[in-house]
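Dear colleagues,

I hope this message finds you well. In preparation for our joint manuscript, I am sending the Secreted protein (Streptomyces olivochromogenes) sequence together with its predicted structure, so that both groups work from identical material. I would be grateful if you could confirm receipt.
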Amino acid sequence: MPQPRFDRRLFLRATAATGAAVTVGGLSAPPASAAPGGFPDYTYVRTLLTPSQLKYNPTGEIIFPCVRGVYDKLSAPLGRYYLYYGPHDAPGGICLAYGNSLEGPFTEYPNNPIVANNWQPHYSVSHVASPHVMWHASAKELWLYFHGENTTTRLARSKDGINFTYDKVVLSTSMLPSGTTETSYARVFPHELPSHGAHYVMVFMLNNTTNHRDIHWGWSADGRTWTYDQQPLIRHSDVGAVNVGGPHLLYRDNSTYVVYNKDKESGGDLMITEVGNDFSKRNHLGVLYNSRSSAPENGRAAAPSFGTDGGVPYMIYEAGERLSGSIAMARG
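The corresponding structure tokens are as follows:
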């Protein structure tokens, strides 16, 4: 019997966006069913991190996971994969766990937080949160984007993924239209945008005085200095939500997609919109992942991070009500 075809180009493209690894020769068959756009139909497998089981647990909540394959990037990593996360409420803190499989288990780094809410002489804020780490290939560094306060996103850089050097503020409410009150939960991806002279794009959540959150975006030649579109990329009203947030880019069949979460009042699911490689499309495709009413999701999945391991697609995400959930893993 002939073997199912493994779409190597698709997996390599997805890996460039997520920083995780692809092993050709692992699972080769496509998923039995598919989500919108032909993406995998992810199924919850297990919880990876629960606040009550963590040594660093100042607030009883953790959010915004970001997983990165580091075994082929760092000289002596603690594990094949680094999982960044943290509490949101004050004092917050950027935290690290490590493991050898996206299936888990992940071990808490003993000296969390690796970035705190007071970093002199650069800042002193009530909290820092929402870590997104990108492998910057030309610098051979892991670049950490994180917020604190909710008005400001900052950049720090590291050679080992643990010890970071502060760089600069890359996003603030002052860079967006008048009335903007929050610019946070940013994720950055290598992405060629020739019309803008850009090699990186950022997607993030914006709130304003109407208290409805949308997805916005920006572009950069170097990942440090940014230009931001003054209009939303995805409006909450376009997808029947009160708020949308937690955006992440995915790639398939030579196109670009944004995955993001609806607030629990609007269903608590992960949605997907095709924006195209030049971000000119607005093809709202519906639900990518339907959150379950049972634990640990309790009707809410949010802030996904994606990767592949052995050819198997994974999604690591917030599961549960905001500020009382855990970090879970689903497999496609």
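For the figure legend, we might mention the following. Residues 8-18 form the longest helix (11 residues). DSSP finds one helix and 22 strands in the chain.

With kind regards,
E.M.
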